[in-house]
Amino acid sequence: MSPLVPNEIVDEILDKTDIVELLSSYVELKKSGQNFKARCPFHDEKTPSFMVSPAKQIFHCFGCGIGGNAISFLIKYEKMEFPEALKTLAEKSGVKLPEPRKMDPAKITFAEKLTETNARAAAFYQDNLNKKIGEEAYRYFRKRDVSEKTIKLFKLGYAQDSWNSLSYYFKSLGTGFELLSKAGLIVQNTEKGSWYDRFRNSVIFPIFGLRHKVIGFGARTLADTSPKYTNSPETFLYKKGSTLYGLNFSKEFIRKKDYVIIVEGYFDLLLPFQEDVKNIVATLGTALTPDQIRILKRFTKNAIMIYDADTAGEAATLRGLDILLSEGMNVRIATLPKGSDPDSFVRKEKKEGFLKLLKDSRDIFDYKIDILKNKFKSDTPGGKAKIANEMLPTISRLANEVLKSVYVKKLANVLLVDEEAIGSELKKVKKSFPYLYAPKNLSIAPQKIERASAAEITVLALLFDNPAFMEKLEKEVLINEFKNGLVVAILKHIKKQRDSKKEIAPSHVISHFDSSQEVENIVSEAIVAGESITDREKTFKDCIEWIKKNNQKFVLSSLQLQIKEAEVLKDSKEVGRLMVEYNTVLKEMQVKADVKKT
Ligand SMILES: [Zn+2]
């Protein structure tokens, strides 16, 4: 759904786009019946489970569940925003988009204004560094061996020790507080209502987007206070979870070298970069997110992580590791000598030392097992179990089956336990939590919290194939009785379209919803599921039956809970009433089952 472009135009663009043609420039499509198959570009796999349907103009992966239409593909794979994806397809298909200015001047100019404000603020901070007030900051950079050239390239700057120097500067330019606040540059005092500069007495690191525009700022205080580092809050332009510091400068080098070095902080990146190790990005203290990794994957599939040799660094590495593996990256870990970070290490050991460190990087297994052996006693049964518990999720994420079995063997050797036991434990892991170390607020949930049931998906599939099923559906069950909220939303949309005698094309349905991935995944899953249904009438009946029964089961179990509660409260009258209700529902179910048997 786009607030800027009318739905009809979005539909027209989708109709004039051939998803097969579009995707064939990204993946190797092979004809398979009416559809095309390929190895999924979103997860690592050997046998193709990624499907493209020319008839329905959607794609779907059985492996990772990702799916959608042509627009969703560009959003998910190329990390485009909706308008950009739409524009790309409009150009390819020759559909004329409404003039951008006429679309929504407020929104477009807001992004432009924000970009301009950031650029001005960066220039202001940069300028300070050359002034007398910036002398200490300049010395600070030089003391940390940051060269003049690096200062210029990365547009490093200084925010002076003042509550309002930046505000005053922008006031003289006529920029309002609102814009500055939305750029994250000023903060409001909640008691007084007054505004003050966010960054004070700090050296400033502008954070760039992939196209070299300043989207946010990082600051390191020169005072003896903590925290040492502060960043811009999330803004319209700056999204923490999908930004990697330095990538705008390093992306071409990453592509050339075919691997990326991942570090944590600003200086960890600046010093190696300056020493000509340029295929490097920094995560800026946040744990790696799947979004960040998908952006990296456009440039390489190989990563070496370098983290501080402290405990915080270790935890961050472990977290990042599992996410990298899940996204199908090959990962190695370089460990720094205790007490040093990439920045201080490079300063001392120069490029040669740094390259040697990379060369000595270890494979995930060796790295993690050492940490776990320090953490738990590997010679006690309890310790062994704990080590296995933490190691197996990592192993299960490996895409390479051969490597997986090698690691199972290794782990069995380290723990002195039976290889088969490890193997069978591994099978259990795969089905449980996808990210053992992942923080709760991942921007992309790796797995749906409550999946739509197969029956619900199948009903959707039947409706897409033949909307006339809608009448039958409504006779049997209420749309609201479907368990999955998104399925309910899609059903309601289909009903609305049908009531107003509009066509129901799956690829259109997708873009009528807010760019929620779940809707796309559910719709594409339904389309794929629909293709293998032979007896549609019977399947429909069975599904509705299942949904009703499932609802009754749900009612029964909630009644059971209520009965228990009433029993605890010794409310015998209520218990009696609930029992009657419970038996009625139960009987209803049995009657139906009997009817079915005869
Ligand atoms: Zn996939």
Q: Your description of this structure?
A:
By secondary structure, the chain is α+β, with helices and mostly antiparallel strands. The protein has five domains: 7-102, DNA Primase, Chain A (Alpha-Beta Complex); 105-237, DNA primase, catalytic core, N-terminal domain (DNA primase DNAg catalytic core, N-terminal domain), CATH 3.90.980; 242-360, Dna Topoisomerase Vi A Subunit, Chain: A, domain 2, CATH 3.40.1360; 369-431, Pheromone ER-1 (Up-down Bundle), CATH 1.20.50; 454-592, DNAb Helicase, Chain A (Orthogonal Bundle). The protein has 26 helices and 16 strands. The strands form four sheets. It has a five-stranded antiparallel β-sheet with strand order 1-2-3-4-5, with helices on both faces. A five-stranded mixed β-sheet has the order 13-12-14-15-16, sandwiched between helices. A four-stranded antiparallel β-sheet has the order 6-9-10-11, with helices on both faces. α23 (506-512) packs antiparallel against α24 (517-530). The longest helix is centred in the last third of the chain and has 33 residues, at 536-568. It starts with 6 loop residues before the first helix and ends with a helix. Residues 431-450 have low confidence and may be disordered. Bound molecules: zinc ion. Zinc ion binds at residues 40, 42-43, 50, 61, 63-64, 66. The site of zinc ion has 8 residues, from loops.
